[in-house]
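pinned: reference chain
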Amino acid sequence: SAARAALAQHFSLQLVRDDPSLEPHAGTVEWRGERHRGLLGALEAEAGGLQAFASAYEDLGLHAIDGGGTRFADWAPAAEACSLVGDFNDWDTGANPCERGEDGLWRCVVPGGVPHGSRVRVAFRGHDGSEFTRIPAYARACCPAKDDQPYLDGLHWDPPSEERHAWQHAAPPKPAAARIYEAHVGMSSEAHAVASYRHFADDVLPRVKAGGFNTVQLMGVQEHALYSSFGYQVTSPFAPSHRCGTPEDLKYLIDTAHGMGLRVLLDVVHSHASSNVMDGLNMYDGTDSCYFHSDYTGRGTHALWTTRMYDYGRRETQRLLLSNLSYWLNEFRFDGFRFDGVTAMLYHHRGVHWDFIGGVSEYFGEHVDEDAVTYLMVANDLARTVNKDVTTICEDVSAMPGSTQPTRCGGLGFDLRLGMGPADEWFRLIQRPDEHIGMGDLVSMLTRRRPTEKTVAYIESHDQAMVGGMSFAQALMGEEIHHHMRTGTPETAGVHRGVALHKMTRLLTVAAGGDAFLNFMGNEFGHPGWIDFPREGNGQSFEHARRRWSLVDEDEDGRHAALGRFGAALMALDEERGILNAAHLDVLHCNEDAKVIILERGSLLFVFNFHPTLSHENYAVPFGAAGSWERVLDTDEQRFAGHGRVSGGVYAHSLGPFESHDRRPASAFMYLPARTAQVFSLLVADDVAGALAVESYSAGEYTDDEDAMWW
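pinned: its structure tokens
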């Protein structure tokens, strides 16, 4: 036992050994490891293990009994009385009363059974004598209440065997690098309406596959009464959103994706919950502290979102949330999760008005919610226990050290964390005149991350386009995107810049930004406009809650379609050459005046000329080996709405035995058109040393000896 404890302590400090800047906080890191192991030990003693503890969804809620009848269980410790009501018993609170057991659990059996599709609620009498109803916390489906009431009812979901989804496909293996297509099912059609799970499966998944992505990340799946919350104010965590179809329809979507070789991640919201009372978990048993911190503590409500904040140290909150993860993995066969709002979980200040530029001490101390840290560690343990190939992603703007380190090494246990800083920075940079965009700024922005933390790189997720924002393409081109993207329209200066930078920035982000890549639905082809869901403030309009696929489908020679083709080619290049999975990243050359960046990622060489007007002739480009290099991608190809100014491969000549160019043994003089990027792969190596064959060289004011930054 002592040896095991010493070994566990050794592993838990691996985080500090990997990052010496954490040495002053080694004691806290070790203590976190002890808390993590302590909770796992407690769950083993109390429930027989983590998986058993996280199987509460098989007990709580409504379940059919073999031989007839329905059993029901719920947890409401402050309630004085409880009964199951619904249209199956004419909402009679006396028909099916529950008996209270230990620890606030209420149970009853409905002998005749609750028919599939019945509306159900739980009727409580509170500690103060008040009477109220709630949707069961573990409800697996919901529907709008009758008589146009502005809330939802629970729906008993227990279809006959012939109506249940029959799974056809095994999940695809975990990819070496995730190419993630972030999507919202409800806004996935072009119609002014809420789209369905089956529409997404049949019409959108083929687009995702053709675009070269290998992972779909679904937002807004957990039930939420307020559609305009984008799914982030969850009311029933176990129920799929009723607007898009039934639970069986969602299973069809996931099964269809698996059949196409696509993995599916759930955007799970365990950071907070809706403040709704009639159809949410708020005031569930008549108190404000059933699953949440009480407002009396000052931690119960998010200051900006006005949503309720979970108490991760409470055992039944842990049971609810961990069981929720098991439920989605087992019952719906999701392949993993993107944990939303982790910053709000990790800190008592919720990240509100906190910029995280004060050093590593900000990740330790009284402002950290250590219960949330422990919960996230155990949540990742659970996910990997249920599915060894699971993928978990952390949305945390603070960049908590160890986010993607294993829990046994002192980390939180995620596979990946979202690289959130560069996305916002891209939008700020492109507002500058091109000559004021620093090449060093771009390189630093994309490579400024801990080497031990795996990062999802992206330019735009849904966040950037929400109300008050815009898509990256719209930010680049403004109103011109609506008038000059179709076939036959003139290429204005604004559109030329926008189309070129849309491609170049994506290529640079994939090459240097991280270990996975994310794209929000439609932005691969430069979707115009922002995102705004139907609400009172916009007259319940769907205009900005849809995707305009016709921009591509009805104009194959237009610039939107060309951007889509480039995006697919970029994803295909990663599939073939393993860009994102490559450990080797070396920025060889970064010149501010010439606006040129040259870098290696894996075995590929990336050459960027961000200059808005100057095409460099005979630019000396370093290569890792002498020989013939194949141009495997060129942003200026005509099929990508470029001008086709270069073609063919490149021959790199070997330098002398004591010579190098940007720390590389070979060089070639190349033509670099303005606002273009090219990618090269070694085709045939040359074992014979050669000499520089091209003597003429012109690159504007740049020479090999001045104004370059060497990396």
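why pinned: Confidence is low (pLDDT under 50) at residues 688-711. The first strand starts at residue 61 and ends at 64.
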